[in-house]
Amino acid sequence: MCINDEKSFEKENVFGLGLPNTAYAEYFIGNSYLNPLTEMGKCPVFLANVTFEPGCRNNWHIHHAKNGGGQILVCTAGEGWYQEEGKEAVSLQPGTVITIPANVKHWHGAKKNSWFSHIAIEVPGEETKNEWLEAVDDETYNGLE
Q1: What domains can be seen in the chain, in order of their start residue?
Q2: Which of 36, 88, 127, 145 is buried most, with the most CB atoms less than 10 Å from its CB?
Q3: Dihedral over Cα of 50, 56, 58, 60: its sign
């Protein structure tokens, strides 16, 4: 369900908005928010609720790993998009689970007319690192229906 009103979205976003995602803002078009659900270093798996304002999306990126690694997205509120390089974009709604293998170029974010949240789960692995790449261009993003 598309939700473009922030107050209505807050009622659906059960894991909370969190704080502005300033640490990674340069890798996003639009505003995003981060609410860690586990404490990095104290739990072997890091989980965070990531919220995107309507039209917000992250850049293309790759979760590199020598072994294991990758990311899992559990969509919890609003509507968004996920796309792997060379594939069609996938529409995301609450309940959608996306498993992103390590070393796959992809992006994700909100639809143009909806707030969107997902829980991002960093899959443990060997020699993991995130590589941020180019922004998702407006032509590609605006062409999604």
Answers
A1: 6-142 (2.60.120.10)
A2: 36
A3: positive
Query: Which residue has tokens 């609720």?
Result: 49
Return the C-alpha torsion angle 136, 89, 24, 100, nearest 10: -130
Check if the beta carbon of residue 95 is closer than 8 Å to that of residue 58.
no
Half-sphere exposure of 72 (CA within 13 A, CB side): 11
Please report, as a single letter, which amino acid is at residue 126: E
Residue 110 belongs to what H/E stretch? strand 106-110
Q: 128: number of CA atoms within 13 Å, CB side?
A: 15
Whole-model pTM: value is: 0.95
DSSP 37-77: SS-BTTBSSEEEEEEE-TT-EEPPEEEE-SEE--EEEEEEE
Contact 58/107 with Cβ under 8 angstroms?
Answer: yes
pLDDT tens digits, 59-97:
999 999 999 999 999 999 999 999 999 999 999 999 999
Residue 89 tokens read as: 């974009």
The whole-angstrom distance between residue 82's C-alpha and the CA centroid of its chain comes to 8
